[in-house]
Input
Amino acid sequence: MNKKVYVCYDINNDYDIVISFINDLYLTNAVDLVATSSDLLFEDIEGVKSMINKSDLFIVLCGYHTNISKNVTIESEIAEALGKENLYINCRYNRYKTNAPKNAKDTSIIYQWSKENLMLLKEKYQ
Output
């Protein structure tokens, strides 16, 4: 059975890349998308909680401004409160300038976005 995934990203700065990432996720044949950040736009926090709660995996696409993104912070805090593990994926070319959300742990790893790493995630979370 495929894992249900919620993809969190900075809706103001990383919208251009999320569709490509979701397409790559589908190519792994490992996940079913539950929702993305832009699906709810935070007018209904209970709706956000519900969608995150329905997911098995909570993925944060990390870009240049993820650490100051209000929506990413809210979603990450909700996921953490619900006991979801945050998986961080670099969605930009320069991995040294990408940032995890400000509530990320110091031990958090930002994985490089590659088909190989997505397949490893598939194996880890199946």
